[in-house]
Amino acid sequence: MLKIDNLHARVDDKEIIKGLSLSVKAGEVAAIMGPNGSGKSTLSYVVAGRAGYEVTDGSISLDGESLLDMEANERAAKGLFLAFQYPLEIPGVTTMTFLKAAMNAQRKQRGEAEMSTPDFIKTVRTAADKLGIKQDFLRRPLNVGFSGGEKKRMEVLQMMLLQPRLAILDETDSGLDIDALRIVAEGVNALRSPDRGFLVITHYQRLLDYIKPDSVHVLSSGRIVKSGGPELAHELERNGYRDYVADAA
Amino acid sequence: MNASVKPPQSPAETSLVESFEALRVSGVAAVQEEAFARFLNKGLPSRRIEAWHYTDLRTQLKRAPLPARVEAAAEAADGAALVFLDGALVGEPQAPQGVSIERATAGRRLAAPVIDEDDASIALARAFSRETITIRVEANAHCALRFVFQNSETAATSAAHVIVSVEAGASLTLIESLDSAAGAGHLAQALIEFDVGEQSKVNYIRINSLDAAASAVSTLGVDLAARAQFDTLSLTTGAALSRHQIFVRFAGEHAKASICGATLVRGRQHADTTIIINHAAAHGESREVYKTIVDDEATGVFQGRINVAPGAQKTDARMASNAMLLAEGASMYNKPELEIFADDVQCAHGATCGELDDDLLFYIMARGLPRREAEAMLLEAFVAPAFDGVEDEDMRETLMERVRGWLAQRK
């Protein structure tokens, strides 16, 4: 489903991703773990299509189609979703308005009809209930004044509504207490399905207790330096990243 | 003409002399002559005059067309609308209950000095005003009026002068629209003066959607009695060159004014809003919220000055002007000023100029919105606070719809 091959990417003339290859199959939850500065967030931005992140070599494709020439919104319409490590606040745009605009923009690009307002409201309310998001939040400007945990839940709400093919979770566990972590993980687990893939980026193994990965990859200095099963995450938790940092250096 | 008058300098001034000559053919009042002589003595305001530093009419106004011919009133205006065609009031408008509308030869003024009569643009507007329309809202009456300023297919230099007197305890909602025929290079001037009586309330919304070939120079003067409230909002998307100046005087205690606006310009438009708030009495409250979006090679100007006189204790004055620049060639001059001679006041001003936030744009695009839609979402949210004070929800939606329409036309 997602195939990254020999990816090289730079930001401001600094090469951050240095020949990274990775694939995520439909139904698979792949975890990427790595020390700070290894290029985890950069990888998520490059895949999502952020301006200023220049791909100098290699390829990224989703369902066999290259993403590289697509704008971020086109990648989203193709089914790519990035849950941000630091979700942004949008003053003046209510959460409801934002969600509706996002859903309809994607539908429009896929040539589908817009969702009717009653259907939309019902869908949002049901999803919000599952995540323990109070209705009142939906009327407030998106993420403005929300706590870290509330923002992360809002990211998962968006993911539930947009029903992506492939979701990238960028350090979704950062800033979450245990209760919030459990709710967020349950939301993600509910979305696991045979035709959806996940790329879970995290620094700590803790998140992977709640979202069980099928594969674990260690990212260091812009490359995948080791791949394995769930046991690799536990090994990292015990020994830290120093072996891999040393390898890369 | 007075022999001591300086010779006109710029092509626009020369054409204004021709234009005034043409006006004389159909007769002008002595006060118009006197006003034109004052204008000629000063000439068009140029950048050397501080209040006009960013809008140099002398060079930016290329030429002034002839005035429109005086024609017999065409169709009667509908309902409570005063229709002005090329500056002249059309027909005999029907005054709603509690309102009287009187037409008189030019020359009336507000009793109190509110506007800056030294300003040459005001002398020019007085010179070209054939009559003064005086609207009186009786004490304790509640009514709504509309001003419809239309400008025809033939470019004309025009001016309208209206005095609105709102007596004690009355309330008035006034909606004004300015439009002009496509491609006609009008010079549309207006001088609108408000005498807002004790405990009366005015809500005045002004929508400038003149064609991009027209120029507009307008002045609003407001005199506030004790406990009066004046709320105004301007939405400006029109005119090649526009200057809207607002003078507000807090004459009575405990008066309130909210002066807000949104200006959206593109191409080579130049839009100037200049506000002078004079707190002359204690316990006054003034609020200004201005939002300006400048695209392409357009220019926005916001000058706002709050003066607090020695006796105007407990004044609470706040002014904010925020601008968003959408293109390399776009310019904004943002100049807030405070001049305070009282020691027990709260005054604040803030001015910002910025660009759309790339992080926010990426976030919105990553959710599926194409760039232009993501930008429009942010720009709509940027402008919206200017309309917060509009109580009528339908009107607020009408204004937002115009903003969306403007955003949808971005290339």
In terms of DSSP E residues, the strand content of chain A is 25-35%
What is the mean pLDDT of chain B?
Answer: 93
Would you count the extended β strands of chain B for me? 19
Q: Give average pLDDT of chain A, whole number.
A: 93
Write structural notes for this entry.
The complex is a heterodimer of chains A (249) and B (411). Chain A is an alpha/beta fold and 249 residues long. Chain A has helices spanning 40-48, 72-77, 95-109, 117-130, 135-139, 148-162, 178-191, 207-210, 231-239, 242-248; strands spanning 2-11, 14-24, 29-33, 53-62, 65-66, 80-83, 166-170, 197-202, 215-220, 223-228. Chain A has ten helices and ten strands. In chain A, the strands form two sheets. A six-stranded mixed β-sheet of chain A has the order 6-7-8-3-9-10, with helices on both faces. A four-stranded antiparallel β-sheet of chain A has the order 2-1-4-5. In chain A, a hairpin with a 2-residue loop joins strand 1 (2-11) and strand 2 (14-24). The two termini of chain A are 32 Å apart. The model of chain A has no long low-confidence stretch (mean pLDDT 93). In chain B, a hairpin with a 2-residue loop joins strand 1 (81-85) and strand 2 (88-89). With 411 residues, chain B is an alpha/beta fold. A ten-stranded mixed β-sheet of chain B has the order 2-1-5-7-9-11-13-15-17-19, covered by helices on one side. In chain B, strands 3-4-6-8-10-12-14-16-18 form a nine-stranded mixed β-sheet, covered by helices on one side. Chain B has two domains: 73-355, no CATH class; 357-411, no CATH class. Chain A binds chain B through residues 45, 48-52, 71-73, 75-77, 81-82, 84, 87-88, 90-93, 98, 101-103, 105-106, 109, 141, 158, 162, and chain B through 358-360, 362-371, 373-374, 377-378, 380-382, 384-385.
